[in-house]
Design a protein that fits this description.
Length: about 100
């Protein structure tokens, strides 16, 4: 969501503007240890200055690398296969789903 808010606003927002767009009441919560911006900054998606947050020119590549490291695609494929098996079971009670 933070990435989308930054993209829609041209790539740079103040902490207060970003917090408002994300529905966060206190802008300081964005910079909290382990928070969204810290994680995004650690993978190279954003640069945080004293007053603003900006997407880096290579933000998309950084996002793709972070997803690969986090194995997001494998988790999504596993979730889809489990969901399909559950649906098949509900449609045909005689068929046993496989994990």
């Amino acid at each position: 969501m933070a990435t989308l808010a930054l993209l829609r606003s041209g790539g740079t927002l103040s902490y207060e503007q970003l917090a408002s767009k994300l529905g966060i009441s206190r802008a300081r919560d964005l910079r909290r240890r382990g928070g969204v911006l810290e994680r995004m900054e650690s993978v190279g998606m954003v640069v945080c200055s004293e007053n603003n947050v900006s997407l880096t020119p290579t933000w998309y590549g950084a996002l793709k690398r972070a997803r690969e490291v986090g194995r997001e695609e494998q988790a999504e494929m596993l979730q889809r296969s489990l969901h399909q098996a559950q649906r098949a079971y509900r449609l045909n009670k005689n068929e046993v789903p496989t994990p």
